[in-house]
Amino acid sequence: MKILCAADGSKFTKKALAFLTTHENLVGPNDELVVLHIQPPLPSHVKAMITKKAVDDYYREESEKVVEPIKRFLDRHALAYSASWVVGHAAEEIVATVKRDKIHMVVMGTHGYGLAGRLLMGSVAQKVLTTIDVPVLLDMMADFNRIEAIAWERGSAEAPLRRLLGSPELG
Asked: pTM, whole model, 2 decimals?
């Protein structure tokens, strides 16, 4: 199974990675973890005031602050993984990666802004959930050890969810 972990470097990311590395039924020896960090684009007016090299250096440096500690953490575990970063809008990049890389499941955190936050800024998790046809495991408020982990299943993505839940039947 190929699992995408959307990584923003927050405590949500750390908790999700710790969860994945301790649950072999999710990421075992024959599975692959794809870690993706999405660096938000700088506003046009900011990019207009500095050189392209300065913008590129900024994106690289900020992304490395997130990706490098994750790589060090995952190197200590016997997991097959790849880690990369892109510049873009989080939900769009996650969806594109799921489709392009034939991802079987997405693991991501929610920042718990609630209804008011979604009305004002939208929810990356909500956009991903309503766009892709693979299971999404949400780390709500960074506590996978409580019953706040949600596995979302749509379409034909039933087998990875069954495997996650450890049940041959979803009913």
From this structure: 0.76
How far is it, in rounded angstroms, from Cα 159 to Cα 149?
Answer: 18
User: Is the CB of residue 70 less than 8 Å from the CB of residue 15?
Assistant: no
Q: Torsion angle, CA of 70/76/80/85, rounded to 10 degrees?
A: 10
61-120 confidence digits (pLDDT tens): 999 999 999 999 999 987 889 999 999 999 999 999 999 999 999 998 776 555 555 554
| Alpha helix stretches (DSSP H) within 27-112 | 44-47, 52-75, 90-100
Per-position b or e across 94-133, b if 16+ CB within 10 A of its CB: bbebbeeeebbbbbbbbbeeeeeeeeeeebbbebbbeebe
